[in-house]
Design a protein that fits this description.
By secondary structure, the protein is α/β, with parallel strands linked by helices. It has helices spanning 19-28, 47-54, 72-79, 90-98, 104-111, 124-128, 130-141, 167-176, 212-223, 251-261, 308-314, 331-342, 383-397, and strands spanning 5-10, 32-37, 82-88, 116-120, 145-146, 150-153, 159-163, 187-192, 197-198, 204-205, 227-232, 243-247, 267-270, 277-279, 302-304, 320-327, 346-351, 363-364, 366-369, 375-377, 381-382. The protein folds into two domains: 5-176, Rossmann fold; 187-397, Rossmann fold, CATH 3.40.50. The chain is globular. The structure holds flavin mononucleotide.
Amino acid sequence: MEQRRIVLGVTGGIAAYKTPELVRTLRRGGAAVRCAMTPAAGEFVAPLVLQTVSGEPVRTGLFDRVEEGAIDHVALADWADLLIVAPATANTLAKLAHGLADDVVSTVALATQAPLLVAPAMNVNMWRHPATQSNLATLRQRGVRVVGPETGALACGWEGEGRMAEPAAIAAAAALVGGPRPLAGEVVLVTAGGTREPVDAVRFLGNRSSGKMGFAVAGEAARRGAEVVLVAGPSALPTPAGVRRLDVETAQEMREAVLGELPRATIAVMAAAVADFRAARPEIRKIRKEDLPSEETLTLELVRNPDILAEICRHERRPVVVGFAAESQDLVETARRKLARKGCDLLVANDIAREGSGFDSDTNAVVFVWPGGEVEELPSLPKTEVAALLLDRVAKLRGGDG
Ligand SMILES: Cc1cc2nc3c(=O)[nH]c(=O)nc-3n(C[C@H](O)[C@H](O)[C@H](O)COP(=O)(O)O)c2cc1C
């Protein structure tokens, strides 16, 4: 953030009370910050607070005169190398999508050539409204970056999506905007983590996948400028900056989320450990020992889960597809067979029997297996580095240079 010149446009949502903290976070990172506010924003945070924490005059009105002899909103627009609108109200998102310019924030947004990052915050129903979603789609299409919103308890009393991303997450997303963006224009769909297949009300069949590899790929793809959707099995890992996360539990939920996002995806990296089988008849209640025919054994009938990787490889709107294979023996041969069977463009095989590799480890020793049968063996590396090398290869498949 060193040397960055950021204009923070604050609009009239309750989350405006968090913007002094955002200004401080951005400044701690080395950025210079100037604030502009809509009239409604002034109802939620005092301009004097933002002026004090930013150390700069705050623009509250389009017709304020701050700099003698300059048209102020144009001077501010030209000064910025990044415009952040946080919180971004439903109203301001609508204005930004349609090019309205009737307050200092929307006018600066129209006049600036700097990239725009918005942090929406609103009531869950306002967020889900088709008008808001369509405005957001317009903005995304235009290259506007979006951070959040988060899901949780909302100030209005509702539960759901609509909370502004935390200041640290907005600052992290801001750091990504403006750097080199070799994957700009790509939509990367990543799956991560293990699935959980319910057996009864309290038990499930799961696996040891931590999600670290998929989360690393998602974070790296976002850093390279891609729009990233992460479909994640249960995981306590934080969502990487700039990534849209869809949480799922079962293989069937994962399949639905993946197929829902697939039409827009240009690259799919399927790093999740999806359960091959699920309980044929999960009990709604807890299974009690006393109710079983035998206290010593319990027979569970399992049925096959959908094969998500094979399905997307066959899909008519097929993106470039990278599959993962976790093997404990005959790594390369098993991976070659899996690649041929599924039909993906690259298979990343990892040897889970090896020390410092596979599930829950921060490092991974992988082999890239290509459709021609060639293999590329990598040493044990941090998962973030494996992610970077993987995306270098994928970018080549897409005709870029990563
Ligand atoms: C107490 C209160 C809280 C509000 N919170 C939000 C909010 O979080 N998000 C939002 O989009 N609108 C919110 N609104 C409505 C906006 O303030 C209203 O749409 C306003 O016109 C937005 O103006 P602006 O976009 O120019 O700042 C809230 C209104 C009130 C009275």
